[in-house]
Amino acid sequence: MGTTVKPYNAGGKKEEVEQMFDNIAHSYDFLNHAFSFGIDILWRKKAIKILKKENPKLVLDVATGTADFALEAVRMDLNADQIIGVDISEGMLEVGRKKIADKGWQQKVVLKRGDSENLPFDSNSFDAYTVAFGVRNFENLEKGLSEMNRVLKPGALGIVLEFSKPKKFPIKQLFSFYFKFIMPVIGKLISKDKRAYEYLPESVQAFPSGNDFENIMIKTGYVDTKVIPLSGGIASIYLGRKPR
User: Fold this and answer.
1) What is the residue-level pLDDT of the chain in tens, covering all 244 positions?
2) Phi/psi of residue 229, nearest 5 degrees
């Protein structure tokens, strides 16, 4: 499972992650897109194209943050009746709610404060779930994956988009240098929280990516799993279904 990495190393991971995202909510969207040079938007689009093939009517977006994934899904005409986004950080949700209101999409996208490891929904409720750049922040990864599986309907698809560790030269070396030395400096200047952007590369490094993560999905009850590497392995899409 790897080493537990926390933003501030002063308490429980869940509480620290909540505090960190509350701290950086005001600058999160700008930094997120800037740090990935906008490639994260293309990654989301690829994941949403996979989601669209499922024709889901009710979608859960876990660790929704500022609702970027949910809003992109609506923009791409995902024919869902509703997307419910849950996140532990009220600061991030406030930013997301404003973005939703600005678009007039309050009926399409609803945001709720919630814990990914104890979701406030009945079992077998959702036609699909998505989680973008969120699972590595879970305090207990297996518990979070099991809980997301629980709320899926039988046969429904879970889609995880997450940073991974590129293995090939020169992407591996460039990615490592950028993440470790460039990102924390810029992140501190703009967000005023230096530790948050030191935590990011640490959390990616400690996270079980590729087949290691796929095996955890299988262990927590998923079938028909698949790993789709993106941009030379900088990120990956993971797919898994709840058994019928």
Assistant:
1) 445 888 887 789 999 999 999 999 988 888 777 767 789 999 999 999 999 999 999 999 999 999 999 999 999 999 999 999 999 999 999 999 999 999 999 999 999 999 999 999 999 999 999 999 999 999 999 999 999 999 999 999 999 999 998 888 898 888 888 878 887 788 778 787 878 878 888 888 899 999 999 999 999 999 999 999 999 999 999 999 999 9
2) -70, 145
What's the CA angle centered on 227, arms 49 and 25, to 5 degrees?
A: 65
What is the CATH architecture assignment of 13-241? Answer: 3-Layer(aba) Sandwich (3.40)
CA 112 to chain CA centroid, nearest Å: 16
Tokens of 40: 């994260």
Q: Which two tokens stand for residue 231?
A: 């941009």
Sorted by where each begins, the domain ranges of the chain are 13-241
Rounded-to-integer distance, Cα 151 and Cα 84, Å: 12
Q: How far apart are CA 116 and CA 148, in angstroms?
A: 7
- Separation between Cα atoms, residue 24 and residue 217, nearest integer Å: 30
